Amino acid sequence: MSRAIVITSARNPLLKEVRRALAKGTLTEDGLCVAETFHLLEEALKSGLETPVVIAAESVREPVERQIGSLQGVRLLTVADAVYQEISATEAAQGVMALVRPQRWSFEHVFRGRSLVVVLDGVQDPGNAGTMVRASEAFGATGMLWLKGTVSPWNAKALRASAGSLFRVPVMEGLDAGMVRAALKQRRVDVYTAVPRGGVALHEADLTRRCALVIGSEGRGISHGMNGAGVDLHIATSGVESLNAGLAAGILLYEAWRQRATA
Amino acid sequence: MSRAIVITSARNPLLKEVRRALAKGTLTEDGLCVAETFHLLEEALKSGLETPVVIAAESVREPVERQIGSLQGVRLLTVADAVYQEISATEAAQGVMALVRPQRWSFEHVFRGRSLVVVLDGVQDPGNAGTMVRASEAFGATGMLWLKGTVSPWNAKALRASAGSLFRVPVMEGLDAGMVRAALKQRRVDVYTAVPRGGVALHEADLTRRCALVIGSEGRGISHGMNGAGVDLHIATSGVESLNAGLAAGILLYEAWRQRATA
Prior knowledge:
5-stranded mixed beta sheet, CATH 3.30.1330.30, homodimer, 12 strands, Alpha/beta knot, alpha/beta, 7-stranded parallel beta sheet, 9 helices, elongated
């Protein structure tokens, strides 16, 4: 690949579209997510997902080439370092981004087996949301339902915080609260809505049955649309009023995992 | 207090020292921590800690005055908005910072009762460290020992992530690993070192006895100095290699709390 052409203008149509997606924190118009860093490139390639394009800054072309190796169907696009910096979402950029086509998931994936479903109901911080995906994978959640009003999973920060879990965990996004409530009801899933206080304490809830954990927004909690969808659930603490949303969701998932492992 | 004098130069000696402390992420030379935001001001005043000075940007002087109310011994310093912005550590500053004298803690505080002690062994990210303080308070840790090489608790980001818990949780900092190992041994505390894999699984460990949880650095894990200080402990997961350090520490603490609540 030593004959690579180096793109020296950020006005290249593909690069313009990548920059737009990164700035908006969404998929490209072609439905690809933009995964920056060597680690996410590796995770993307390992995942087996379609990765039609990898963009490398000129100065790191060789390690990127080595990482791609002899994989078929991956086009390597080399851009001048200054151009890379212009389109990148991170200040200390490593100089590599993969365009990856996320798998399309359905309720059948999310609700498979003894379901443990995480419903994101307005989570705003992409770092928190990504941490929740990571914890979902770590503790065996069968899938995630992201309601309208929640940050996009394909935001660069969410993708980084998920450390690649977003390439593997069944995630459906942009969902209507009413439709999700109906789906939960129809499948007879126990629904728990996470609240700062009130309802049942986490360690006293039975999470060994098919269940869904609803996580509200950092500022406003559970939305009007999901209000009353299930039993309120809180993490008992020693006087602290609230925990970081990512930590709280992680603890809920750990507890479900622990109960299922020891039941 | 309508006769307040407004400082219009950042060269004022106190302001220079505050800016230096914020930039370095440490206490001021006078041993005060700089707590920015209305929330931390409120937490500082509620804590009863000595708060000799509150600095307010001119445009928010009135709400700051209201919050201080008739408290004795608090000097309000009003500065021009541009000066405030110059010394502040945050981009979207709220215009208020309190200078607070942290309590000095000893081993007697940290090891009181049925000890649950968190040892930070090289944690680098101030957000992670602050989250760990928050979780320590939430789940009833008796205190924290911060070893040399760990970020300062008085870093602005750590303080913010702790959401005020740093004003209440017994924290000793800058400690020597050998000295801490000796203290743990002398007090016959069960020591667990958190590792990504190997050793005992968290949900199978008995954390109801007096114990210490050692959390290593995000990149390098447990330090040479603490290596072998206790039993390795990991969080069993479904194939995920690692969790965010703040989340992992929070789950360890939740599990200790849960076991002690249900024992």
